[in-house]
Amino acid sequence: QPVFTDDRTRCIVFNGELYNFRELRREIERAGVRFSTDCDTEVVLRAHELWGDDCLKRFNGMFAFAIWDSLAQRLLLARDPIGEKPLYYSLDSARLIFASEIKAILIDPSVPRKVFPPALVNYLSYGHSVAPHTMFDGILKLLPGHKLVVSNGQVEIKEYWDVGRSFLNGSLPKSLSSADAVVQLRKLLDDSVRMRMVADVPIGAFLSGGVDSSVVVSLMTRHTTERVKTFSLGFDIGGKAYNELDFASYVSRQLGTEHRELKVSHLDLIETVQALVRQYDEPFADAANLPMYLLSRFAREHVKVVLTGEGGDELFGGYRRYSADRFANAYQRLPKTISDALPHYLNLLPGTRRLKTAVRALAVKDPPHRASAWLETFSRTAVMRLLSPEFRNIVSSHDPALPYTHYYSHHHFQGESDDHLNRLLYIDFKTWLPDAFMEKVDKSTMAFGLEARAPILDPRIVEFAFQLPSSMKVHGWSTKLILKQASKGLIPPKILRRPKHGFAVPTELWFRRTITEWIESVLFDKIARQRPYFSAQRVEQIYRQHRAGMHVLDRQIWALVNFELWHREYIDINA
Predict the structure, then answer these.
(1) 3-class DSSP state for residue 320?
(2) Model-level pTM?
(3) Can you tell me the distance from the alpha carbon of 482 to that of 464, in angstroms, rounded to the nearest whole number?
């Protein structure tokens, strides 16, 4: 790269993978176009040459790319519909700089290294930045399904794909029964896996032993004559709460995969965390990025491509909060004396972190703000208490829940569709999924040149999922109903009955006894205490309460540590 057209008037730089490039190539060749390479990058360029920006609607893949047309003096930047691949840019009156990583933009010394204040509030609230903003003032992220065009000195950003345009106002065709919907979903999953297994390099899969990754691996076994290579990770500390290896091993035996396990008992945690900070370019407070990073390094020793199970929860209602949210109205009808007292008494108990979060969220009357409350690392009140008085004044008018309000009330939902759960899923699909999960997967895998592909996030499956009424996804405390029905016969019943279990990381234990001296050296040294953002007294209080076992505050500590390490790595370099 870059790849040029024959007359060298157009060129492209491309990151990602186009899964339907062979079908598109044949169609383009029938139009009389000749290719000089066998790669998908040239297919993207030729497709744009033939169809213009409308080519974006034909692509099935994960990508970020730029096409320069020297005759028209026109630049096109585009990011895939789901946001699997990142695309950052910095824009001022003189120029546009773009890259797949922020650190590439920062190579230019004229780009300022400053914290964007609202982004810090977003980060403290959710553990990550919220697109289009990043933690850097003046560096933005192109939203999924968007394009940026520079022409005649003008910059225009437009959305070219959104599931809502076609589906959120509609519903499942009346001619399609629930049983037919299960069959159709299974066909879509199977074809999506088939497309993503096309590779000229060794390919494998991450296997957690949950429904999503298990069904992907099962379908993989149908499209190869070789044993599928699978990889799992577990922490050999803290018991079963941090280890799913038994489930992954069970699925592997049932499906006959070539399975490898990484058991993490002793690792250079400090060195690994610092490596993550350098790799991610922004502070990232989801501790699951650590096992993803370690598992990626482990898998890369054996394969160059892995399939993952990302997307099943956001499309089909896999999180417990979707079920719990249905109880919000009932909670709010409790006598005020009880509803007011419950959070207070819960705070007196050690642990019960999830229960405290649930009670706090259920008490929020406004649905989009309640949706954001389920995901909070620090509540709005806690963020304001944590900030220094000076910085609090700067960000006092910023509401980190604004994107949630926007997507919950999106105009696509006006009219027939008033499905509360599908609105919550849409919010997570547009925010939580690309900003947290896609970020985590892409940056951890790309650190080792490992390509991760997510079959469940095929746009055809996304569009189909949002046609389904939420009753086909969640009923009571049962989640992902239709996905589990589509998985019957593919994965063991034992796995279908498993409760949801995330990528648990023993930060609670680490921050109490394993790396306490290092944590204190990060949070309480002279430089950290003089930062203009936080109340040093409140930071110390959070740490001491966790250390003493009064409260479980490891997520908050992880967020503060990551921010401080990031500041040293990326901002203090200016000092």
Answers:
(1) helix
(2) 0.92
(3) 12
